[in-house]
Structure formats: structure tokens, C-alpha cells
Amino acid sequence: MNTTATAPLSPAPDDEIEHVALDEDYVLTPAFVEKVVDAADDGDGMKLRSLLEDLHPADVADLMGFLTAEHRGVVTVWLPADLLAETLPELDDGIREEVLERVPHLTLAEALQELDSDDAAAVVEDLEDDQREKVLAAMPEVDRAAIESSLGYAEDSAGRLMQREVMAAPAFWNVGDTIDHIRKQGEELPELFFDIYVVDPVNRPVGGVAISQLLRAPRTTALTEIMDPVNEITVDQDQEEVAYIFEKYHLISAPVIDSAGRLVGQITVDDIVNIIQEENREDILRLAGVSDEDRGSSVPEIVRGRVPWLAINLGTAVLGASVISFFGATIQQIVALAVLMPIVSAIGGNAGTQALTVTVRALAMRELNSSNANRTFWRELAVGLANGLLLAPLIGLAAGFWSGDWRIGAVIASSMVLNLMVAASVGVLTPLTLSRLKFDPAVSSAVFVTATTDFFGFLIFLGLATLVLL
Amino acid sequence: MNTTATAPLSPAPDDEIEHVALDEDYVLTPAFVEKVVDAADDGDGMKLRSLLEDLHPADVADLMGFLTAEHRGVVTVWLPADLLAETLPELDDGIREEVLERVPHLTLAEALQELDSDDAAAVVEDLEDDQREKVLAAMPEVDRAAIESSLGYAEDSAGRLMQREVMAAPAFWNVGDTIDHIRKQGEELPELFFDIYVVDPVNRPVGGVAISQLLRAPRTTALTEIMDPVNEITVDQDQEEVAYIFEKYHLISAPVIDSAGRLVGQITVDDIVNIIQEENREDILRLAGVSDEDRGSSVPEIVRGRVPWLAINLGTAVLGASVISFFGATIQQIVALAVLMPIVSAIGGNAGTQALTVTVRALAMRELNSSNANRTFWRELAVGLANGLLLAPLIGLAAGFWSGDWRIGAVIASSMVLNLMVAASVGVLTPLTLSRLKFDPAVSSAVFVTATTDFFGFLIFLGLATLVLL
């Protein structure tokens, strides 16, 4: 939870041109970015600071993404320390690692104390081992303990995601007790909170009260009278599951409990929005065979993430080629087949990718499980058949006309219908099988699907042609 | 904003097998879905009702997605009226339309009064014209006016998304005034709210106070002392822009203003989460050439959404084939070329899709604009070259060895390097150009990219081969 989040710099009126950093949609203007670049090039630190100091941390992070590594270095030096602290959790991982290398460990230790425990832990996580030790050693005991406890939970777990600051109230309190407590203990509570968790004597949540409900109720009302059941998150739950629960039930915050059921923290929806975007990003990129990369990634890093998929694809393409080579004699007699065969495989690949993408998305949204897997399969097969029956006559006529041999038209038309049904089957079954085996259904599905449609596309078309035409 | 959202049915302990609808991750169990199907098949309405009545509306919506249209019909009849009302806003569009056709208009008119204005409007929007008139006529004037006003805003606009219920306070109030007002007027306020908007005498927001801050402050503190600047949303802003602002600044709620700057409603983050998922879904599906479809779509609906893309792809595949046909004489002399050419085009297509997907995602996240477009292009080109230099020797050696002609190896290796650079260029430039022309960069990009890499893959490979080998 970023506690300064409610006060970004609003877009300025038109007459204050000098300070217009954002356009009307709260996006950084290229003109502003250019101003920063110019100031960095001139080494004009005062100018840089005056440009940056009024920005919201999220906008500084955005700015960093638009700069080169060199310019980021200059900006990092001139950023006010408190703004730097609040910017760190907003940065892309790659950029954050790079920025962290330039910040002296004492500055960093001080900056981290400004952040909530979850944000501070997220930053410390990205430090190199030796820098991490130095930074933690320079922090007060209580902050260090909070960060170390957070890092004790698995990456991507609810424990890592939660903030330890939470507003809990014993079940015997009434509304007045609670409001008085908040007013007195305000400093120790999270800066922003949305629900009060009602706990039993051993600190297990028994319900939750939205603070708008608390405000509405008379002071003498018991908390237990106005509380609702809460969705408890356990510390070891995966962040993707947590996001699913928040999204499904429209939660604003939820209590996190340890294995004994005791309240140990809370997760708020603004962190969930980030997770949802992260997971979506992963799904989209994985479907395209791109491992994690971001704006800060260097060319070698990007190549390392992409070339393995291309290499696998090279292997499957060779497999497809071996099918063609098997029919070399047929092609030598009828060169038209070499011209037409990529059409069959291309349409198959596209239709397979359509079925695959729909299935991967349904799995990610938990809209697909054993209750409707069969029905989904048959529906996709019917779609494949229908697509085939619509498109095959077109290509059949065109190919027959072009080649002057109507049998070639018939061969390509029937191959296309068959390959579209192969595409539908493999498009559904690949992610379903991966998911059942507890693998990520998005990873490598696309390569496998297009490999299959290429393979069968060539095999069916050239096979039928050999049977019919020779 | 779904006001019952904080109280879903928790997963039950193991011994209450009869009522276990959810597994430990709050996902409906296939066993429960089967029970519902059995009860629907038996026409056992009492059993159905007992299974359904304790479910959270989000779980009923999930259940609907797992059922066939026929079973959905039976469930709709037996669903308690208030649960039906709260379930309607949660349903996929296709399923909602289907369910709405089965609900008598008086039941519906009554159900809609239970909902917040934004949810009610979302449901009414999906009604057929004649049913809509009947339903609105059967509602009290005040609810009808709210819904009609909401529907007066453009689809996907902030006006459509906002709820009209909002907590505003004049700038001269202090904390005590505000709390007393909330306690007195509680009924007229939104059931859940997170920020109080401070307004000037003509109802223009001048700031916002998080209610956790309100609770913390002494009763005599003026609101203007503790308020923060707010991010104002205008009624005609597109929901995608609204989602961007919420996400970037970690907002929980934001005031919506009309063209005169007056406060007319608020948008809360839980609605934003839905929008984000909707936009992500669209991006993923569009990249694969799938128009909008959901679990409720019939086979003809799905085919209508997918076949146009396949037809376009058929056209581009014919274009690629025409390149091959141009080199028919070369292929007739060296059949090995027909075997190898799909390898060059396949790797190009994959690399192009990688570059495309990364670019589309960066555009969607507003991480890419004229500040860094040039740099992104050159980076992708460098990645293309590096990928080519890594993979080309592999395929060159393999092809040379297999064909027994090292010149063929050299031709395929150099073609691959060139085509991977074509792929990188077209992968970046296609979405960038579409975006600059104000088109959705995801739509049709993939078809264009693979068409280009096929075309140039065949052209470069067969062209070089003709030059070198003949």
C-alpha cells in the first residue's frame, strides 16, 4: 500500500506551460521528458530537481522508463531522498535493480524507513547480497525485523504481499471504543485502511467492519452486531489466488492469517491491481514465447529470454520440413503443391492459436475446469469444422482455377477442413493437459500448437495429393 | 459497486460435505456443479434452491458459466429474487442476455431497485428495447430517472461506470460535523465508501479525505486541514483512461465531475478491477484474431467472430504463395528449397510475434510513446540481428549437411538473419503506426506481421537461392 497515493500532481492549467508534466490523461508528455533529458545532458542538477520535485512517485517511475540508463543515473542522483524512496516500489524490476546499484546504502536505509513493510521488503529483495546486508545493518532494529520477517515468506506469497500494519479490534468493543482507539493510537495504525478486523482473544479474525459502516452506526453498537464474515487469506497462499479472491468478491482489503489462524497482516486492493497486471502481462508475453523482460532490459537480456523459444520453434519447423521432404518426389512432379502447402499450414496455425488463446484465458480466469472441459472441446471442434466448411470452398475454387486441375482444388479444400479440426483439438487439449499436469498452460503451448498444425497441415495435404494426383 | 461484496460464503470445513460449494481457493468444485446439474435434471426445485441460496452472487455467476443454456434456464427460475438481482451484474454479457430473456419484467423491475445505479444501468443496457421499456415503466420514478441518466452517458464512459451515490461535505465542515452527518443521513449514502469529497458552494470538489484519516483526526479539525488533492474524473472520460489513472496512482475511489466541474458521482476501485480484466481480455484475444466471445457464446457466434480473421489470413497466405509460385522454376530444379522454405518463414513469424506482443503490451501500459519509440525500434532490430546470428549457423549447418550442398546452407542462414530483421522491424512498426493513427494496436497486427514475414521469408530465401544456386 503506497501511503502517498492519493495526492498526485494534477495536470496543470494551460498557462503554466513550464510545469506541465502530464497531459489531460495523466500521461507524461514527451515535451516534459525531453526537458528532463536536456537538463540531464547539461548536468543542470538544480533544473532537474525543480522539474522532478513536484512529481508523483508513479510519474517519476514512468519517467525512468522513458529514459536511457545513462539519463536514469543522473536523475537518480538529483532526486530528493524521500521521493526516491517512494519511487522505488513503483519501478519495473530491471530498472529498480539498476537504480539501486547507484544509491549509497545509508541513503537507502533511511529511505526504506519511510515505506510500508511490504514496499520496503519488495525493494530489499532486489538488492545484491552484500548491499542488502549493509542496508539492513544500517536500519533500526524494528524496521529490519519487519523486512526480514516479510522476506521470510515465499516470493509471490500472501505473506510477502501483506502489510503488517493492520487495524484489529477485540470482539467486545463497540463502535465508540473503536473510534476512540483509532483517534488515540492513530500513529501506529496503517496510514490508510478500509476495514476493521474483529478478533477473538487469541487474535483470530471473527469478522470485519467496513469503516463506512462503523461511521454510520451509533457509538453504543457492538462491533459484533455490524460485522460481516471476512475472506481470510493465509500467509502461504499464492498471490495469483489472492488476486482471484479479491477480484471475484470485489474486496477492498482482506485479513491475512498464519497457520494457527491468527491475524498477522492485511492485503489491500491497490496491491492486487498490480498483481493482476503482472499476471496478465506474463500470460500475454508467454503466449508469444517471451520470457520476462521490461523497459530496462538490455539487448542480451532480451535475447536470452526470446532465443530459446525461437530455437524450439526451429526444431519443430525442421520436423515440419521433414514431412515435406518425405513427399519430395510428389513435389518434383507437381510444383503447384509447394506453392499451396504453406496456405494449409498457415490457416491451421492461426485457427489453432485462436482456440489456444481462448482456452488459456478461460483457464486463467478459472472459467474452465472438469465441469465444462468436454463441452468446450466439442464446441471448439464444431467451430473448427464450421470454419473449415466456410473457407475450404474459397481456397478450393481459387487453387483449382489457378492450377487448372480441379483435383488439386479438392485436395486443398479437404486438407484445410481436416487441419482446422486438428487445430481446434490441439488448441484446446494442449493448455488443458498442461494445466492438469500443474504446468502454466500459456508456456510453450503456442509453439506446440503451431508445430502440430504445420506437421499435420503438410502431412494431410501432401499425403492426400500423393494419393489422389499421382 | 456491489454492496454485498464483503460477505461471501466461506469454504466449509471438511465434515459439512453436503454444503461444500467451494474448494480452499474459493473456486466452485466440479462435485457441487454436478449436484446442481442433477437437481436441475430431476426438476427438483427445492433441492436447487437449498443448494443455491447461500451462495455469493459471484459464485452463482461462476456456476452459470459452467452450466449449459438449458440448465441455466432451470436455475434462473429457482434462484431467490434478491440473489438473482445481485447475480445479474456479475454475469458474462452473453449469459446475462440469455438469463434476462427468462425473467418476467415485474420481477426484474423489483430486483433492479436493490442494486446501485451503475449496476442497475449495466443490466438494463442488456435488455431488448421492448423489455427495457416495460421494466423501466414498472420502476419507481426516482430509480428510473437514475438509470436513464446513467444510460444517457456513452458506453464505456466514466458516466456509465460511476455510481451517483457519493459522500460530499461542504468545505466549512469539521471532522465532528462530518461524522454526525454520516450517522444521521446514513441511509442516503452509498453503502460502502472510502473517501469523503470536500466541495465548494457550487458543488465542485476541492479535495478528498480518506475516511481512515477522518477517524484519526480530532472532532474539531477542519476538513480542509486534512484533505488531499483528488484526481477528478470527467463523465465523458473513457473507462480505459479511468482505469489507467486508478492503477497508476493506486486510487481506491475518485470523484466524477460534469463539464461544469460539479461533483456528480464516484467510481470505486472494485469496478476498475473488472475493467482492467476486460481490457486485458480484449488485448489477448485480439492479438490472436478473436473478436469478443465468452462462455455463453454459441458456435455460430464464435465462428462469426473468428472466421473474418481466418479469411484475411487466407488472403495473406495466398500472397505468400504467389511469391513461391514466382520461383516455381527454381523449386522444380531444387526440391530441397520447398522443404526448407517454411523454416525461414516460421521462425520469422515467431520472432515477429514476439516483438509485436512486447510492443502492443508496452503501448497498452502507456510505456511507449514518442520519447522512446526510436530507441525501442533500434533495440528490437538489434535483438533481431542477435537472434539471427545465433540461430542461422545452426540451421545453415543442418541444411548444408542434409542437402549435401553447402551453398544451400549459406542461403538459408543468410535468409534467416535477414528475415529476423524484417520480423523485428514489422513487429515494432505495425502497432506503433496503428497506435499513431488512433487504431487499436492489437487488432490485425498479428495477421499483418506474419503475412510480412511469410512474404519476405519466401522472397529472400527463394530469391537468394535463385541468384546463388542456378
Would you give an account of this structure?
- Chains A, B: Belongs to the SLC41A transporter family.
- Chains A, B: The chain crosses the membrane at residues 307-328, 334-360, 381-402, 408-434, 446-469.
- Chains A, B: It is found in: Cell membrane; Membrane.
- Chains A, B: Keywords: CBS domain, Cell membrane, Magnesium, Membrane, Metal-binding, Transmembrane, Transmembrane helix, Transport.
- Chains A, B: Acts as a magnesium transporter.
- Two copies of one chain form a homodimer.
- The first copy, chain A, is mainly alpha-helical and 470 residues long.
- Chain A has three domains: 17-156, MgtE N-terminal fold (Alpha Horseshoe), CATH 1.25.60; 168-284, CBS-domain (Roll); 299-469, SLC41 divalent cation transporters, integral membrane domain (Tetracycline Repressor, domain 2).
- The first copy, chain A, has helices at 30-41, 45-52, 57-66, 69-78, 81-87, 93-102, 105-112, 117-125, 129-137, 141-151, 158-161, 175-185, 211-216, 223-226, 239-249, 269-287, 299-326, 328-333, 336-364, 373-403, 406-436, 445-469; strands at 168-170, 195-199, 205-210, 233-234, 253-257, 263-268.
- In chain A, the strands form two sheets. Chain A has a three-stranded mixed beta sheet with strand order 1-2-3. A three-stranded mixed beta sheet of chain A has the order 4-5-6.
- In chain A, strand 2 (195-199) and strand 3 (205-210) form a beta hairpin.
- In chain A, helix 19 runs parallel beside helix 21.
- The radius of gyration of chain A is 29 Å and the shape is globular.
- The termini of chain A are far apart.
- Mean pLDDT of chain A is 89; it is low at 1-19.
- Chains A and B meet through helix 1, helix 3, helix 12, helix 13 and helix 15 of A and helix 1, helix 3, helix 12, helix 13 and helix 15 of B.
